[in-house]
């Protein structure tokens, strides 16, 4: 893999591959094996300022390209990503621990945002407003917001970049990307392909660093950054929002989640089990939209737990490069510690382990099901971010909705029912930005992704996504006289 043309170990700033000014580097390791994969630049605020300055200098010429010209660049980038699909998936797997089948799926998913926004670039329509007086004409146009910063997480090393950068580049905004220190190699590979696609120097920049606090502070406080998009934890999102207040930046925050998965007694049990497995154990439970709490109506509780346990027992753990493996390692020791803590707390408070519950070698942990979960357990309140599924009982529809909404988070939610009236009632009552109805996998580039409450604000993907990288300008033409 080190011989691959897209396996890069330097940051990408102003159209050039570069080291940190300090000369410092940090190691990227494989969470499945502990192997050191590469050393990349450990950049500081000085390095970031150079990237921001380059993006700001590139902005006037890039925003003045026609929408069709920007669209052509994005389309070429999309084609290059798809041509290098296997290589990108391999890099993603070895640095994140995501199993190969899911990495391949993420390349498809992530590239779809580039394809989508290549088209949306040509559809940033304004308005002509009927005037309030005969001598005026009122027009509204949309323009690039300016330089955009993207701070992305390790659990989707490719898609979280393309979901943010696609609309920014389509709108005419140069970008400065800060990937996580756990997974910078996928981000750098994307930078290589962006360069091959022909984006002008300064339009696309990727900085690597272990000092997320100082880098984030620079991106928030620098007035040349006009828009900040962040995916990560709610506490960090709040800090970034505070730090951005002085410059009144546009922001999109996709933060923590505590997704409920409700199974009503009229649901198709086999389909509900299938949906719960894919929603809970995708990337080993390490996604913000993963099911965190499974709520099952008491009449079908035992049946569901039995079927769900059998399905989880069939999941295969092992070599993440094996296409038949579904469960890989946790990202680090901290993640492993949290999983153990949540299970220990739940068992101490009466939960019953129906399968799993034990750590394996290294950062691997057995897929786990906890029956008899209750609302006083840590796992009911906190995002576990691991392969642990607690199953709670409820009696009525009203109780299920109360339990589901009893959290400060509001990102994704899911429920299964055959009653169309119930489907409408529950979907409207759930306090979440996204609802899966008889479906456990809902993310797509054509629909808006984002949450409410302390899961953040802003939407990514869909026709709405590009608006967050544009300003609305109203123009009033006066003195228009009749002939």
Automatic annotation (TrEMBL):
Residues 17-474 form the Aldehyde dehydrogenase domain. It comes from the Bacteria. Transmembrane segments: none annotated. GO terms for molecular function: oxidoreductase activity. Signal peptide: none annotated. This is NAD-dependent succinate-semialdehyde dehydrogenase. It is an enzyme of class 1 (oxidoreductase). Gene3D superfamilies: Aldehyde Dehydrogenase, Chain A, domain 1 (3.40.605.10), Aldehyde Dehydrogenase, Chain A, domain 2 (3.40.309.10). Keywords: Oxidoreductase. The active site is at 254. Its EC number is 1.2.1.-.
């Amino acid at each position: 893999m080190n011989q691959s043309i897209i396996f890069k170990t330097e940051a990408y700033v102003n159209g050039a591959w570069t080291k940190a000014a300090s000369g410092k580097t940090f190691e990227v390791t494989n969470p499945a094996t502990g192997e050191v994969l590469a050393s990349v630049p450990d950049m500081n605020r000085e390095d970031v300022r150079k990237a921001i300055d380059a993006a700001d200098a590139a902005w006037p010429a890039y925003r003045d390209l026609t929408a069709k010209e920007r669209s052509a660049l994005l389309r070429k980038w999309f084609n290059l990503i798809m041509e290098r699909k296997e290589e990108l998936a391999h890099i993603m797997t070895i640095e994140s621990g995501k199993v190969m089948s899911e990495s391949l799926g993420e390349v498809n998913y992530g590239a779809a945002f580039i394809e989508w926004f290549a088209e949306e670039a040509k559809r940033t329509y304004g308005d002509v407003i009927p005037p309030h007086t005969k001598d005026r004409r009122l027009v509204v146009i949309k323009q690039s917001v300016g330089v955009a910063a993207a701070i992305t997480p390790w659990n989707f090393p490719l898609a979280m970049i393309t979901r943010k950068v696609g609309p920014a580049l389509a709108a005419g905004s140069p970008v400065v990307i800060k990937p996580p220190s756990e997974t910078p190699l996928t981000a750098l590979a994307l930078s290589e392909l962006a360069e091959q696609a022909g984006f002008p120097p300064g339009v696309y920049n990727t900085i690597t660093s272990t000092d997320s606090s100082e880098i984030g502070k620079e991106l928030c406080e620098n007035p040349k950054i006009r828009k900040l998009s962040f995916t990560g934890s709610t506490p960090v999102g709040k800090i970034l929002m505070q730090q951005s207040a002085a410059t009144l930046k546009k922001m999109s925050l996709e933060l923590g989640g505590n997704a409920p998965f409700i199974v009503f007694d009229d649901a198709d049990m086999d389909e509900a089990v299938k949906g719960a497995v894919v929603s809970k154990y995708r990337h080993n439970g390490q996604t913000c939209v993963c099911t965190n709490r499974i709520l099952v109506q008491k009449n079908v509780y035992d049946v569901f737990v039995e079927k769900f346990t059998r399905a989880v027992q069939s999941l295969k753990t092992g070599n993440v490069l094996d296409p038949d493996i579904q469960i890989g390692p946790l990202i680090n020791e901290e993640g492993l510690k949290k999983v153990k803590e949540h299970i220990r707390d739940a068992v101490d408070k009466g939960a019953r382990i129906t399968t799993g519950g034990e750590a394996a070698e290294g950062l691997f942990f057995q897929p786990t099901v906890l029956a008899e979960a209750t609302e006083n357990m840590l796992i009911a309140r906190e995002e576990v971010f691991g392969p642990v599924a607690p199953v709670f009982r409820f009696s009525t529809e009203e109780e299920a909705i109360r339990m589901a909404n009893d959290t400060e988070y509001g990102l994704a939610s899911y429920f299964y029912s055959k009653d169309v009236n119930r489907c409408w009632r529950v979907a409207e009552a759930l306090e979440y930005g996204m609802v899966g109805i008889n479906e456990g996998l809902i993310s797509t580039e054509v629909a808006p992704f984002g949450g409410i409450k302390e899961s953040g604000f802003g939407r990514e993907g869909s026709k709405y996504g590009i608006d967050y990288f544009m300003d609305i300008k109203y123009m009033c033409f006066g003195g228009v006289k009749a002939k």
